[in-house]
Write a structure and sequence with these properties.
The protein is mainly alpha-helical and 258 residues long. It is 39% helix and 5% strand. It is built from seven helices and four strands, in the order αααββααβααβ. A hairpin with a 6-residue loop joins strand 1 and strand 2. It is elongated and about 165 Å long. The N and C termini lie far apart (150 Å).
């Protein structure tokens, strides 16, 4: 049959059978994931968190200051323990089923070493410095060149034994002072003859200073002359106050040297 001949069976379109698809798989967490995605959880992804708790200035960032947490490995008792050795009875020997034979367990050193290595925190690197071009390297901490003493908590503070020694000396001195005061009174009465003798001596000193003050030149045009005049005036004033105190108070008590 050539292609130019017409076939009427193709004139009526055939109905297409619909393809039945299996229902699409949907997870039970679809709605929760969608809500989490729309809850703006990644708002800090570009600019960081809104409020970050900062460290105080005393805890500034130091090298190797972060603590490394090693994973915790649970010991499997079935692997750590060795197989139980069972002692079988010899041929012909009577067996007792009710009696239990003693079992010996050995420690699995290999398994223990593996767990210790996993849990161990890696050591911090040492501070090394190369001081020559040939490759000679020294460790500063072991050579005594690392300033570790200034990092101690008691740096710049008085040792406890010195504070204790000072307190003991103060207590001993206080006890000695109290003992002397109990034996001898701290004040004594100044007799009349001693008071008159002291008053006459003060007046004699005042007269000598006053005579020296009158001999000063009339013109005080230099710094030494001004200082000399000021010193004499101050001494005269002090002597006048002492003389006035002795004349106004007939009864005087004097503090003794303890």
């Amino acid at each position: 049959m050539s292609k130019f001949q017409e076939n009427i069976k193709h004139l009526i379109p055939r109905p297409k059978t619909p393809v039945v698809k299996q229902p699409m798989y949907r997870s039970i967490y679809t709605e929760s994931v969608r809500r989490t995605y729309k809850s703006n959880n990644n708002c800090h992804k570009t600019m960081g968190y809104a409020e970050v708790e900062l460290y105080p200035p005393s805890e500034f960032l130091k090298k190797h200051s972060r603590k490394e947490m090693r994973p915790f490995v649970e010991i499997n008792k079935t692997k750590c323990c060795a197989r139980k050795s069972i002692q079988r009875p010899c041929d012909g020997a009577p067996t007792n089923a009710s009696k239990k034979l003693p079992t010996k367990t050995r420690k699995n050193i290999r398994q223990t070493n593996i767990i210790d290595v996993i849990r161990r925190v890696p050591p911090s690197p040492k501070h090394r410095v190369q001081d020559t071009r040939n490759g000679h390297v020294i460790v500063l901490n072991e050579a005594g060149l690392e300033p570790t003493y200034v990092s101690k908590k008691n740096y710049g503070k008085t040792p406890a034994y010195i504070v204790k020694m000072y307190k003991e000396k103060e207590m001993a001195q206080l006890m000695e002072t109290e003992r002397k005061r109990a034996v001898k009174p701290p004040f004594r009465y100044l007799p009349e003859d001693e008071r008159n003798e002291m008053l006459n001596g003060l007046k004699t000193n005042w007269a000598e200073l006053h005579k020296e003050f009158l001999l000063l030149p009339m013109l005080t045009d230099t710094v030494p002359k001004m200082k000399r005049k000021t010193m004499l005036e101050k001494q005269l004033n002090n002597l006048e106050k002492d003389i006035d105190l002795l004349e106004r108070n007939p009864s005087i008590y004097v503090c003794q040297d303890v």
